[in-house]
Amino acid sequence: MSFQVEGKVAVVTGGSSGIGLAAVEILVAEGAKVAWCGRDEERLNASKHYILEKYPHANIFTKACNVLKKEEVQQFAKDVKLNLGNVDMLINNAGQGRVSNFENTQDEDWMKEIELKYFSVLHPVRAFLDDLKQSANASITNVNSLLALQPEPHMIATSSARAALLNLTHSLAHEFTQYGVRVNSILLGMVESAQWKRRYETRSDLNQSWEEWTGNIAKNRGIPMQRLGRPEEPARALVFLASPLASYTTGAAIDVSGGFNKHL
Ligand code: NDP
């Protein structure tokens, strides 16, 4: 069964790398028109070339845009509409986590983390909502973390901001039913990312393969599936929630953590 997104317009924030790029690729492969952004122009161009090399006929649009800058996001939304048409699916993926505990998290760090988790969603939602209201299959899908339900002391600010985002996602889901816009999220465990690749380059045992190294991390952290997730795994869950296949699902969160969740 296909995701039924052919001809529909999708936006992926932070689509130039990792999970975002994997979602872009699935959407393009399924025949959707896809727009994505990131801050770094070079990374954005590299992702565009990667997609066009594999899918020369892809209908895509990319633009450098910082999701924390309201005017840039509004301009991005206008440009997407102009280039691809009215948006059906918004995937809010842009962001990163902060490793720090209470002792070494300063007030400014708290403010930055709260700003990132709220406004990386609020700015795009405001910018695209009018378009989404006009779509027969409108969805907003937020990338969130299992930290929202299962906080980790070494990521104290990220954990509490993630909990706030889960709460916000629920409120938006309920408010937006009147517009026919579904709002869902995925809760990630640990997924292979550029950050992990950088740490791998500086590993102490250079004989360790990527699989061994990440497998050990997963075992030490107690991930039951004993490996990190691959970007395409959360990406598939994202595209499912965004697609018409999830037409009766709103306010939901799919866990993509390899069994790392400890709650029922
Ligand atoms: P990557 O670093 O590979 O990708 C992040 C993407 O977001 C990049 O395209 C980056 O591009 C973009 N981005 C970051 N900040 C902004 C911004 N302010 N405005 C626009 N684009 C931005 O990370 P992942 O794929 O691993 O992560 C994707 C999402 O999943 C993130 O929100 C992350 O916090 C979340 N997550 C990831 C986990 C993991 O284990 N990998 C665990 C839990 C959550 P650029 O830097 O050029 O702007």
Automatic annotation (TrEMBL):
SUPFAM superfamilies: NAD(P)-binding Rossmann-fold domains
Top-rank taxon: Bacteria
InterPro entries in UniProt: NAD(P)-bd_dom_sf, SDR, SDR_fam
Coiled-coil zones: none
Official protein name in the record: Short chain dehydrogenase
PANTHER family for this protein: 3-OXOACYL-(ACYL-CARRIER-PROTEIN) REDUCTASE, NADPH-DEPENDENT REDUCTASE BACG
Assigned protein family: Belongs to the short-chain dehydrogenases/reductases (SDR) family.
Record-linked NCBIfam families: PRK07062.1
Source species: Acinetobacter calcoaceticus ANC 3811
